[in-house]
Structures are given as structure tokens and as C-alpha cells.
Amino acid sequence: GSAKMVRICCLGAGYVGGPTMAVIALKCPSIEVVVVDISTARISAWNSDQLPIYEPGLDDVVKQCRGRNLFFSSDVEKHISEADIIFVSVNTPTKTRGLGAGKAADLTYWESAARTIADVAKSDKIVVEKSTVPVKTAEAIEKILKHNSKGIKFEILSNPEFLAEGTAINDLFNPDRVLLGGRETPEGQKAVQALKDVYAHWVPVDRIITTNLWSAELSKLAANAFLAQRISSVNAMSALCEATGADVTEVAYAVGRDSRIGPRFLNASVGFGGSCFQKDILNLVYICECNGLPEVAHYWKQVIKVNDYQKSRFVNRVVSSMFNTVSGKKIAVLGFAFKKDTGDTRETPAIDVCKGLLGDKAAISIYDPQVTEDQIQRDLAMNKFDWDHPIHLQPMSPTAVKKQVTVTWDAYEATKGAHGVCILTEWDEFKVLDYQRIYDNMEKPAFVFDGRNIVDAEKLRKIGFIQGLAMVVR
Ligand code: NAD
Ligand code: UGA
């Protein structure tokens, strides 16, 4: 090939676009990578010392290549026109109104990105779907691009991302696989090869899978559905464990030792959260319905139903253990992020649990090492879109939230004078808290509800805690 430097532009500087492009830049010094976004605030943050997202190892990667071959810019049009490969990593949330509301993916941002590309491009481009999209999206995108193409050739590839938040950098460094889907034409295959060359800088070629476009698009939805299904399966078992005296941790361990099942991703919890599992499964359900497959749609919907059930079951357990009322009682909430090692609160089970407790008039005091007070207040006052009719949660006014909710920067402060403690995120630091000290400063009887199975149940019992443990009975 020519000595010309390959140029990559990525639309969307979010949880996926930022870390993914930073790792490509780090691993491919010969490629120039520019990440653009319509949010100038986000771009400024990427160019500052305070990156817009918390992700272990990310600061280090960005520091190594920002200004060298990694750039963050608000000049969307300039960088699109200069790039050979354009990744689109914009958000694709669930539609909240119109056709398919509550299930279908909202492709407004994607469509507007595609229109910008069509308007601005002056040379041939490879356009890569990095966002998670419904199967067949490439067909729609192709229509938008080709309609305005003025003779310019666009090749569309699907390259879904499988990183998990909290471990994004490691996942990107050592992916289980990279998936590339493209058209089965010579031009399509040439584009697939060009993208494969990028990843081959650090990913072993036997881990780079190539498929047709529709398989790549659908595999992403399928993978998230399978992962979430494992959690709902073990969470459904946790309910039966509580009813029978079995210990869900022991059951999960015994089941996971079967090499066909495997040990990972079987932790019972207060429910899964995060921006994608629910959104992607709803999207899958909608696609099944649109394709005349109601039985398949119903099957996957149950994964979300069980997740909603698990969250409301947790709230019910807290309230019923505490003599059927938490009105006026202080309840400490340890952890608000949807999982450890991230400050992300999108769809965190903590929102539903806190709203449930607030509905019963509890005074809650929240501590999370990475989530700001502002974010928590906003999340709790937000009128969450009801995808079906899960736990009925009254929206609260920001002032009402402020009255009933305090946010602290210390676990001991949060638990002082509390009647109960709910652990909602599995932060490592919660495993090593001085629970004797916490107990001594609480009202008695002191309750603990471990929604993540991280504390030593026996140790806590000895201290004197009553374990209205929602997930484990020992
Ligand atoms: P995000 O909301 O963090 O980032 C999306 C960014 O795109 C925002 O900063 C937004 O301002 C920007 N944007 C929107 N329209 C734009 C446009 N027309 N031009 C330029 N920028 C635009 O979202 P995210 O978490 O990074 O997710 C992005 C996609 O990746 C979603 O489809 C998601 O399902 C998928 N995904 C997410 C994860 C994850 O862990 N978060 C993992 C795998 C896949
Ligand atoms: C998930 C997938 O793991 C990624 O592969 C995928 O790329 C991503 O969604 C996406 O498409 O957005 P993420 O949501 O960031 O990643 O984090 P996970 O580690 O999957 O955790 C999701 C939720 O499930 C968290 O609330 C977590 O606490 C919960 N969980 C996870 C459990 O309750 N039990 C488990 O055993 C594992």
C-alpha cells in the first residue's frame, strides 16, 4: 500500500467512543485518530485533566497518545471530510414515544450522524457501526448515505463493541473476539480487510471474526441477551433459595463448575443495571415482534421481567424485615453506580431501590465513591420511562428528593444513626469497612441487606447485625 497515513474519525465521544479510540491510537502509532462529538462540553473534558468518564487505566492511555495521534475535537465536519474510516459510536437509547415506544431503538442520533457524513464527505469512506443497533440498520444507513452520495462510495461495516464498563481498557487490550461484518462483495471484503488491519496491530488474527453484516449486528444483541439471561437465571434461583434455605452462592458455584456452563457472570444481585442490557433486550423483543415471532419475543422479555421482580423483591424485603415500615427511618445506601469501578448510573438498580424506599417515606443517606451528589439528585427526581408496567414508582419533585435524601462522601457518615444498611454496588472498599464501628453507631436493631453478596455474613451476624439479607440465607 501507499505510505499515506490512515485517518480515523469517530463520531461520539462517550463510554465507547472515548476508550475504544484511545486504545486504537495507543496500539497503532501510524494511525491518526480524531474523536468528535456534538457536545462541546464533553470534548473539552476529554482535552482536560478531568476526563468525562471514570474508567481504571483510561487516564494513562489518554496521556500517552493525546496530542500525538489521538485528538478530541468539536469540528465534526472537518474531521469527517479528512477521514478514511469513520466510526459511529453515538447513543442509541430506547424510544420513549411514537412507533415502538418503550422497546425499539431510537436511531435519531445515528441518522443525523449518517446525514452529516453524507453532506460533508468529499472522498470514499468506510463507515463503521460501532453503536449497538437493530439488525438491518446498515441497510437504512446505506440508503441515507447513497442517496446524497454525489458519486462518492460508502462501504458500511458492522463492528459492535463488547467492552464492559469498569474493565474497558483491559477488555480492549485483550478482547475475547473482535467482530467485523461486511457486504459479501469485493468492495465490502476490501473494507473488512482494511478494518481488520487496524485491529491486527494488537489482536491475534484468530480472535478477529468476520461475518456478514446482519450476523454481526445481531450477534451483539444476542450476546447481551445471553449475558443478562444468566443473571436473571441466578436471580430467579435466589428467590427460591430464600424460600428453601439453599444458599444461592453455593448453588451458583456448584452449577458453574460444570464446564459447559462456566463460573463467570453468575453472581446473584439486586438486579442488573447499566445502559445496555435492558435497552438491547427490549430492542431484540421488538425486532422479534416485527418479524412475527411473538413466542421468541416473550421468551426474552422474561429476562427483564425477572430483573424488575428482583429489584422490587429487594425493596419489599427491606421494608418487611424492618417491621413493615421504614417511614422516617434513616436507611444508608452504600453504592449507587450500576457496578463497581465506574461512576455511571444509567439504569442502576439503585435508582429503583431508592425510589421504592422513598415511596415508603424512608430518609436515605447515600455514599458512592464515584457518583456525585448532583447526579444522584437528578437520577432520583427523573421521571423514569416505564417500559412495561414494572414497579410503580411515583416521580418525585427535586425538592422532595432533597428533603428525603442526603449524599455523603464517607460510608461511616452515611451509616451513622441508620436503622438499616443496603449494599447496592460491589465496590471493593465495602468489603473491608469496619463493620463493628458501623454497628456501634447505628440504631438497634441494626439491619444489613447485602444486594451484592460481598460481606462476610457470619462475621456480621457475630457483631449483632440482623441480616434481612435479600439474596442469601445462610
Ligand atoms: P454515550 O451516551 O456515552 O456517548 C454517545 C455520544 O455520542 C454522546 O457524547 C453524544 O453527545 C454523541 N453524539 C450523539 N449524536 C452525535 C452526532 N450526530 N455526532 C457526533 N456525536 C454525537 O453512549 P455510549 O455508552 O458510549 O454508547 C454508545 C453506543 O455503544 C450505544 O449504541 C451503546 O449501546 C453501545 N455500547 C455501549 C457500551 C457501554 O459499555 N457503555 C458497550 C458496548 C456498546
Ligand atoms: C455489558 C456487557 O458485559 C458487555 O459485554 C457489553 O459490551 C456491554 O454490556 C454493552 O453492550 O453495553 P456492562 O453493562 O458495562 O457490560 O457491565 P456488566 O459487567 O455486564 O454488568 C452489567 C450489570 O449486571 C451490572 O449491574 C452488574 O452488577 C450486573 N451483574 C453482572 C450481576 O448482577 N451479576 C453478574 O454475575 C454480573
TrEMBL record:
<feature type="binding site">
    <location>
        <position position="346"/>
    </location>
    <ligand>
        <name>NAD(+)</name>
    </ligand>
</feature>
<feature type="binding site">
    <location>
        <begin position="12"/>
        <end position="17"/>
    </location>
    <ligand>
        <name>NAD(+)</name>
    </ligand>
</feature>
<dbReference type="InterPro" id="IPR008927">
    <property type="entry name" value="6-PGluconate_DH-like_C_sf"/>
</dbReference>
<dbReference type="Pfam" id="PF00984">
    <property type="entry name" value="UDPG_MGDP_dh"/>
</dbReference>
<protein>
    <recommendedName>
        <fullName>UDP-glucose 6-dehydrogenase</fullName>
        <ecNumber>1.1.1.22</ecNumber>
    </recommendedName>
</protein>
<dbReference type="InterPro" id="IPR036291">
    <property type="entry name" value="NAD(P)-bd_dom_sf"/>
</dbReference>
<dbReference type="InterPro" id="IPR001732">
    <property type="entry name" value="UDP-Glc/GDP-Man_DH_N"/>
</dbReference>
<keyword id="KW-0520">NAD</keyword>
<dbReference type="InterPro" id="IPR028356">
    <property type="entry name" value="UDPglc_DH_euk"/>
</dbReference>
<feature type="active site" description="Nucleophile">
    <location>
        <position position="276"/>
    </location>
</feature>
<comment type="pathway">
    <text>Nucleotide-sugar biosynthesis; UDP-alpha-D-glucuronate biosynthesis; UDP-alpha-D-glucuronate from UDP-alpha-D-glucose: step 1/1.</text>
</comment>
<feature type="binding site">
    <location>
        <position position="165"/>
    </location>
    <ligand>
        <name>NAD(+)</name>
    </ligand>
</feature>
<dbReference type="Pfam" id="PF03720">
    <property type="entry name" value="UDPG_MGDP_dh_C"/>
</dbReference>
<dbReference type="GO" id="GO:0005634">
    <property type="term" value="C:nucleus"/>
</dbReference>
<dbReference type="InterPro" id="IPR036220">
    <property type="entry name" value="UDP-Glc/GDP-Man_DH_C_sf"/>
</dbReference>
<dbReference type="Pfam" id="PF03721">
    <property type="entry name" value="UDPG_MGDP_dh_N"/>
</dbReference>
<comment type="similarity">
    <text>Belongs to the UDP-glucose/GDP-mannose dehydrogenase family.</text>
</comment>
<feature type="binding site">
    <location>
        <begin position="276"/>
        <end position="279"/>
    </location>
    <ligand>
        <name>NAD(+)</name>
    </ligand>
</feature>
<dbReference type="InterPro" id="IPR017476">
    <property type="entry name" value="UDP-Glc/GDP-Man"/>
</dbReference>
<keyword id="KW-0560">Oxidoreductase</keyword>
<feature type="binding site">
    <location>
        <position position="42"/>
    </location>
    <ligand>
        <name>NAD(+)</name>
    </ligand>
</feature>
<dbReference type="GO" id="GO:0003979">
    <property type="term" value="F:UDP-glucose 6-dehydrogenase activity"/>
</dbReference>
<dbReference type="GO" id="GO:0051287">
    <property type="term" value="F:NAD binding"/>
</dbReference>
<comment type="function">
    <text>Involved in the biosynthesis of UDP-glucuronic acid (UDP-GlcA), providing nucleotide sugars for cell-wall polymers.</text>
</comment>
<feature type="binding site">
    <location>
        <position position="37"/>
    </location>
    <ligand>
        <name>NAD(+)</name>
    </ligand>
</feature>
<dbReference type="InterPro" id="IPR014026">
    <property type="entry name" value="UDP-Glc/GDP-Man_DH_dimer"/>
</dbReference>
<dbReference type="GO" id="GO:0006065">
    <property type="term" value="P:UDP-glucuronate biosynthetic process"/>
</dbReference>
<feature type="binding site">
    <location>
        <begin position="131"/>
        <end position="132"/>
    </location>
    <ligand>
        <name>NAD(+)</name>
    </ligand>
</feature>
<dbReference type="GO" id="GO:0006024">
    <property type="term" value="P:glycosaminoglycan biosynthetic process"/>
</dbReference>
<feature type="domain" description="UDP-glucose/GDP-mannose dehydrogenase C-terminal">
    <location>
        <begin position="332"/>
        <end position="457"/>
    </location>
</feature>
<dbReference type="InterPro" id="IPR014027">
    <property type="entry name" value="UDP-Glc/GDP-Man_DH_C"/>
</dbReference>
<feature type="binding site">
    <location>
        <begin position="90"/>
        <end position="94"/>
    </location>
    <ligand>
        <name>NAD(+)</name>
    </ligand>
</feature>
